Amino acid sequence: MIRDITLGQYYQTESLIHRLDPRVKLAGTLIYVITLFFYKNFVGYALAIFFLATVIRLSKVPFKFMVRGMKSILFLLMITVLFNLFLTPGTPVFTLWKLSITKEGTSLAVSMALRLSLLVIGSSLMTLTTTPNNLTDGMEKGLGFLKIFKVPVHEVAMMMSIALRFIPILLEETDKIMKAQMARGADFESGKLIARAKAMVPLLVPLFISAFRRANDLAMAMEARCYRGGEGRTKMKPLKYRGRDYIAYLILFLFMFGSIWLGRLTLPMLMVG
Amino acid sequence: MNIVKADNVVYKYERHDEEGNVEGYTTAVDHVSLDVKEGTFIAILGHNGSGKSTLAKHINAILSPKEGTVWVDGLDTAQEENLWEVRQRAGMVFQNPDNQIIGQVVEEDVGFGPENMGVPTKEIWERVEESLRAVGMYEYRKHSPNRLSGGQKQRVSIAGVLAMHPKVIVLDEPTAMLDPNGRREVIRAARGLNQVEGVTVILITHYMEEIVHADQVFVMDHGKIAMEGTPREIFSQVEKLKELRLAVPQVTLLAHELKQSGVPLPDGILTRKELVEELSKVCRSR
What domains appear along chain B, each with residue ranges and CATH number? Predict the structure, then answer.
C-alpha cells in the first residue's frame, strides 16, 4: 500500500540516541560533518570511525540501514576514488600505460572515500533515529535565534511539517490519477525518456490543481482553528533539554576538539596526501 | 442574547470573466435572519449551491457579511478585534477530512487549536485527552491520521475543535465524503457533544436522515430560508421538499405515499420505528 511508505527513513526502536533531543542530534551531525574536513592524518579518521561505530551501537539501528544510504553515492564514490588514485602527481608506485598510481594518490583516495562514507552514514544515522516531526521541531527551536535576522523560522518549520503530512496523501492521489488515465489508455511505461516525460504532463496538471485546492482548504481550516503564525503560540510537546542531552553535548565537544587536535598532528607514514 | 444571531445577512460572490474583470455578482446568502439558542442542535439543509455553506462560514468569521450582521455569543463577527475570539467560540469542521488535519499524529492535531490559542502545555494535554474521549478516538491518539477511516478522521477533526472549548460547533457537510458507516459515526459524535457536553451544534447537510434528531431545522434555497421548523414539521411537507430538490428519507416517503393512497397515517413520520407503530395501530383498528 502506498500509504504505508515511511517518510525520510526513520527506524522505529527504543534507544538512547532515539531519545536524545533533536537539537542535540542536529548540532551533533553538523559538528561531526565539519570535523571530518579537518583531519590531516589517519588517526583522526580512526577516531571518527570509532565514534560513529559507538553511536551506531547505542542507536540499535541495524547496520544494513546505514549502508542503504551508501548505495546512492556509490557512483560518486567510485569516480572520486579513481580520479584521486590516477590523477594525483607524486611518486609513482604502479604504472599502467600512461596512467600511474602514486603513493600520494592512494592515501588521498582512501581518505576521500573514508570522508564521504563517514559523512553519509553519519547524517543518515540522524534521520534514522529522529522522526521528521521531531526534526522540524528541533530546527524551529534550534534555529530560533535566526528570527532576529527576520528569518521566518516558525513558518518554514510549519511548511515542512505540513509538506510531510501531505506527501502520502498526494502520492495516493497521483496513484489514483495514474490509474484513471491508464484506464483510458494512457501509457506511462513505454517509450523513450522524452516520451515518458511528456506522458507525465497530463498527470501533473490535475495533481497541481488538486494540491492547490487542498492548500486552500487547509489554510481555511487552520485559520478557523485560530492559527495566526508563531506569535503567542504554546507547544503541546515542548522540547526540553535533559541531563543526557547535556552529557551528549559534552561528549560531542570533547570529540570535536580531541579528534581535530589528534587529526592535525604531523605523523610520518599516516599523513593524508 | 442568543448564542448565534444573524440579522438580514447578505453575501455576494464576485463573478469574473476570463480576464479577471468583475462581471457581476452572485448572491449566495440573501437576507437571512437566524436565531440559535444555546445548547440546541440545529440543522441547516439545502441542495448544492443553496448558500448553506456560505452562511456557515459567516458563523466562524471566515467570511463577513456584505450587509447585515452576525453575532456569535454577543460578538459582532465583522469587527476585526473580535476575530480570534469568535473563531475560538464557534469552531468549524469542514467537508474534506484530509484537508483539515494538520498534525502527523492524532493527538498533535487535536492539540493544534489550543496551541494556537496559547494554552499552557499541561492544559493542552488535558484538553486533548478529554476531547478525544468525547468522540471515542482516545485509543487512536498515537496513530497517523493517514491510516484512519474517513469517519474516524472527521471525529478527530471534531475533537480538534472541541479542544478549543467552543460554545458552538459548526459542521459544514461533515459527512458528504463518507460512507454510510462513517456518516453514522460522525452524526453520533455530534449528537453526543450536544447532549453530553452541552455544546450548541449547527449541522449543515443535504442528507435528510441526519436531521431527524435536530431541535430545529432551516431549509435553504437560493440563498434564502425556505422552510423553518422542527424535523416533524419539515418532513410533513413532502411535496414542498421535493420541489426544493431534497431527497426525503425513504420511511417518510413511504408513509407519505401510503397516506396518499388512503391509509390513515399522520404526517411527518421520521423513523422506521414510528412507521411500524403507526401501521400496527391502523391494522388493529380494522
Answer: 37-66+74-230 (3.40.50.300)
**Residue numbers of the domain that contains A72:** 2-263
Per the domain annotation, does A254 fall within a domain? yes
Q: Which among B96, B121, B147 is the nearest to A217, CB-wise?
A: B96
Q: What is the ipTM of this complex?
A: 0.85
Backbone angles phi, psi at B43, to 5 degrees: -120, 135
* DSSP assigned state of A230: S
pLDDT greater than 50 at residue A125? yes
- Tell if the CB–CB gap between B104 and A165 is shorter than 8 Å: yes
> Which of A163-167, A174-178, B54-58 is the least confident region?
A163-167
- From the centroid of its chain, how far is CA B227? 17
Determine which of A226, A227, A237, A240 to mutate to test the interface with B (most B C-beta atoms within 10 Å): A226
- Chain A residues in contact with B62 by the CB 8 A cut-off are 220, 223-224
Q: Model's pTM, two decimal places? A: 0.80
How many structural domains comprise chain A? 1
C-alpha–C-alpha distance, residues B85 and B51, integer Å: 25
Looking at B118-175, list the stretches that DSSP marks H as alpha helix, in order from N- to C-terminal side. Answer: 121-134, 150-162
Query: Per the domain annotation, does A272 fall within a domain?
Result: no
Over the stretch B134-166, which tens digit does the pLDDT of each residue have? 999 999 988 888 888 999 999 999 999 999 999
Q: Please tell me which of the candidates A217, A235, A236 has its beta carbon nearest to residue B94.
A: A217
